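Reopening this ticket.

The earlier resolution said the output was attached, but the attachment link was broken on my side. Pasting everything inline this time so it's all in one place.
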Amino acid sequence: MFSLIERLSKKLTIAIPISLLLGLLYGISFNPASLKKLLIPLTFIMVYPMMINLNWEKLLKGKDSKVMAVAQGVNFVLVPTIAILLSTVFFRNNPYMALGLFLSSLFPTSGMTITWTGLSKGNVEAAIKLTLVGLTLGSLLSPFYLRFAMGKVIPVDMVEIFKQILVIIIIPLALGYITKLVLINLFGEQVFKQKIAKKLPPISTLGVLGIVFVAMAVKSKSIVSNPFQLAYALLPVLLLYLLNVLVVTLIARKFFNYEDAVSIVFGTVARNLSIALALAINAFGEKGSDAALVISAAFIIQAQTMAWYSKLTSKILKKNESSLTILEGERANA
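Inline output:
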């Protein structure tokens, strides 16, 4: 069973479209209203394993300040601004689809940020910090960003948003931290890192696929009546990622060495769509299904973008093997 989950987590580019299709077929064939009861459990399954793996000790180290500053400028100024501009062009008459695009831009980094950075031989330490800081700032700032950007076109209940942040992020974060301490106490740090930690991210995949399934099932009737809606949602999402990748790659190539450049790219292009999707469904109810449709499209685009960028990283960012060796030597002597 677990080997199947692992395979799914490595094939998200295929698994997410299949989940979308199955959700669509279910929503057409049955009444999907009862599925809404699964949203909170699925959200917990999705977020909790990711929180257990967070390494808070890395955040206390004072290195990588330049990487952190540039990345947060991109994450909380550039990307949301691009999302707002695109939503005014494409979703002028559908504020909840605009909400979906904006939510897709609000929560930087995901568990895959660290994975892709490591696979591409980037600065993993910086990627861990970017994940922690992005998650924390996104949680604190998102209610205010939503009120500022969307408050004129849709009702944004700040209390409800904060409540959902508490359920979706803060509680799993606290439980994840406690669980990690207990597991290390029981099995030791080496066993935790080498055996247990590796098995946690694939479990999150089940939550992601489950929420995508529910979101599509809830939205299925309106998609069938307007079959071009999902295709239409893909275009602005694609533009959001293309512009993000282009700008960040130019910055990374010009101002950073290869390792730091990799961490900046994956720390700013990857968004925490799991949290965005859970927030759309839980905080905005039935109307949030339009937002969920756009975020589901973002899952498809992001998975493909990360996979292809990782494959081409050394060419795009011009990895210099000799300088990389020197950097590794310096890190080892530090």
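Reporter confirms the inline version is readable. The chain has a mean pLDDT of 83. The CA atoms of residues 164 and 282 lie 7 Å apart.
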